[in-house]
Amino acid sequence: MHKVLLLPGDGIGPEVIAEVRKVLAFLVDEHGLALELEEALVGGCAYEDGGDPLPAQTLELARAADAVVLGAVGGPRFDDVERELRPEKGLLRLRAELGLFANLRPAILFADLADASSLKPELVAGLDIMIVRELTGGLYFGEPRGIRTLEGEVRRGVNTLAYDETEIERIAQAAFQIAQRRNRRLCSVDKANVLEVSELWRDVVNRVHQQYPEVSLSHMYVDNAAMQLVRDPKQFDVVLTENMFGDILSDIAAMLTGSIGMLPSASLNGADQGLYEPVHGSAPDIAGKDVANPLAAILSAAMMLRYSLDEPAMAERIEQGVRRVIAEGLRTQDIVYSARQHIGTREMGDAVVRALSD
Ligand code: IPM
Ligand code: MG
């Protein structure tokens, strides 16, 4: 029996997670998936409920689960909340507490969506990139950090970009292993022309490479990588990078595929426990309107079945179902590129369930 915790969160989170629940319930009822689902609060809703964006009870349930599926956190309502209690802090703490250092962000273009990309269809047709982002170190977590008041009442903000060799080594291992199962090309992205951290990063990645001679390794500066992603994205197979660079590059890669509403992600620790979430955020402007695209969340559940629950056939079933509804021409508003009709969140979830039944 797999234990899965659903964390709907804020904004469109609850709407897309409701569709995930539908899809998983179908697999339980019709295909014998052995799943026990629980649900808890995280982010802004948890803060409003009890003053903490990651309540102790939620963390406890997450630790006990084999996997967590999260919707999204945050929203403008919380802009004035003290930083430590912001919704995003709940998510960052969850990543850190579970030790989820490896963030896998695939950018895959569905064949029928090439026209939804902002790039020319021939540049993106067949695009299939995997960004491996380090998730529990770097600028996001480095110490010292803070805002201090110096002499003369001048304030100074400080964050620290630091990695030790063990942190680089384990994420490099994860990236090489993923590259080995794909097209065996790994591009490590850094800023080694300026940053010492990147010099160490490069050194460790080169060392780990010796264990994976069948993978071809290249290094690229992050500014060039951003440019290459929009110039000729198909040159990439697996991209390995640190936390902050990965945050930025994965949004660029997402947009190449036409919609951030299509992209899932997985965050793993060394024990196959994982947090699965759509790459999109809480999108407060469209929350509660039944227009959000639930496919990124549904595809995140598929990643969960593959990476944490060892149910590759169930994962494939979901992915096939999603491909089928897209091929049938069903679109939520974010992936409509012509005068086509679009459908809502719930209808899209229903369509995936229907596609699973055939
Ligand atoms: C992401 C998001 C988060 C991040 C925020 C919400 C903290 O942008 O998952 O990419 O920066 O990691
Ligand atoms: Mg981001």
Give a description of the structure.
- The chain has 358 residues and is α/β, with parallel strands linked by helices.
- It is globular.
- The protein has a ten-stranded mixed beta sheet with strand order 2-1-3-12-11-4-5-10-8-9, sandwiched between helices. Strands 6-7 form a two-stranded antiparallel ribbon.
- 41% of the residues lie in helices and 19% in strands.
- Helix 1 runs parallel beside helix 12 and helix 11 crosses helix 12.
- It is built from twelve helices and twelve strands.
- It starts with a strand and ends with a helix.
- The structure holds 3-isopropylmalic acid and magnesium ion.
- Could you tell me the radius of gyration in angstroms? 20 Å
Shape: globular
Kindly name the structural category. alpha/beta
- How much strand content do the residues show? 15-25%
Mean pLDDT reading: 95
How would you summarize the topology of this molecule?
Elements: E1 2-9, H1 13-31, E2 35-39, H2 44-50, H3 56-64, E3 67-72, H4 87-97, E4 102-108, H5 121-124, E5 128-134, E6 142-149, E7 155-160, H6 165-181, E8 185-190, H7 196-209, E9 216-221, H8 222-231, E10 238-241, H9 243-256, E11 266-268, E12 274-276, H10 295-307, H11 312-327, H12 345-357
Parallel strand pairs: 1-2, 1-3, 3-12, 5-10, 8-9, 8-10
Antiparallel strand pairs: 4-5, 4-11, 6-7, 11-12
